[in-house]
Write a structure and sequence with these properties.
The chain is an alpha/beta fold and about 120 residues long. It has one domain: Response regulator (Rossmann fold). It contains 5 helices and 5 strands, in the order βαβαβαβαβα. Strands 2-1-3-4-5 form a 5-stranded parallel beta sheet, sandwiched between helices.
């Protein structure tokens, strides 16, 4: 399954990518912000999941989620938001925009695994 990881922090992208690798997800694409992510998505219609940060330059994660959900072609794409925005209002806003699950930074590899399993419908 092809996964796109979007975060303006290269360190955070590496942490998520390494964690995904340990969970046997090998086909991982990266983007620094929403504009770059959208360009990648246009070229990879077979994307299996989007993991995005909220606070990024160019196009933030919430704007990206709204664009993805509004596009029509990615309606069923699972989206996990990984962010420092942990307030109840932010979580509700992200869920209303179309996020399938939400992870607050900092997080453990186990949390990412559990959220992935929940979104994918697996019980690993």
């Amino acid at each position: 399954m092809k996964i796109l990881v979007v975060d303006d922090s290269s360190t955070m992208r590496r942490i998520i990518k390494n964690t995904l690798g340990r969970l046997n997800y090998k086909d991982i694409l990266e983007a620094e912000h929403g504009v770059e992510a959208w360009a990648i998505m246009e070229d990879h219609k077979d994307l299996g999941m989007l993991i995005t940060d909220w606070n990024m330059p160019e196009m933030n994660g919430l704007e990206l989620v709204k664009k993805v959900r509004g596009s029509g072609e990615f309606n069923d794409l699972p989206i996990i938001m990984v962010t420092t925005e942990g307030g109840k209002t932010e979580v509700i806003t992200a869920l209303k925009a179309g996020v399938n699950n939400y992870i607050v930074k900092p997080f453990t590899p186990q949390v990412l695994k559990e959220k992935l399993s929940a979104v994918m419908g697996t019980d690993e």
